[in-house]
Amino acid sequence: MRKIISFMHISLDGFVAGPNGEMNWIKVDEEIFDYVGKRISEGDTALYGRVTYQMMENYWPTAADQPGASRHDIEHSKWYNKVHKVVLSKTLKEAGLTNTTIIRDNLPDRINEIKQQAGGDILLFGSPSATHSLIQLNLIDGYWLFVNPIILGHGIPLFVDIKDKIKLNLLGTRPFTCGVTELNYTVDKQ
């Protein structure tokens, strides 16, 4: 069965965005781009909440065509255009969307159907609200976190309203020269 891996940048105190969704505190450099690019290039499905999807859709489809596009922009744009996108949204319409599935309701059944299909890990990018919903339904199988060297003090937390403990198994860590540390966990479902 395929696994859903939540990919997030996070502050040391557990926030994934500022109070108004600000992400200007996230540190990303070529070392991180190369590392992340290698791993996501193996994936064939990306999962987003509506807000994150619309942000991605406004940039990545044509990022490679822009004057001065970086190597990262070109590589990620190609990947984004070929990957199957799954979006959790009650309001988004599917008309005109390429290689995209919208899940409006029946979230556990629809997600489990996708997890049963052939393919690699399903990467859940950003999308704090979607992540919160999937955590509540025990549908996340792993966390790929990039801990940024900052304490925000307030903002949008990664973990909210956790009813039961979630036991994790550490797969690995990696420090980056910019001060970010990767933490890679699987969820212990036993």
Automatic annotation (TrEMBL):
Residues 2-180 form the Bacterial bifunctional deaminase-reductase C-terminal domain. Gene3D superfamilies: Dihydrofolate Reductase, subunit A. One of its GO terms (biological process) is riboflavin biosynthetic process. It comes from the Bacteria. GO terms for molecular function: 5-amino-6-(5-phosphoribosylamino)uracil reductase activity. PANTHER family: 2,5-DIAMINO-6-RIBOSYLAMINO-4(3H)-PYRIMIDINONE 5'-PHOSPHATE REDUCTASE, DIHYDROFOLATE REDUCTASE FAMILY PROTEIN (AFU_ORTHOLOGUE AFUA_8G06820). This is Dihydrofolate reductase family protein.
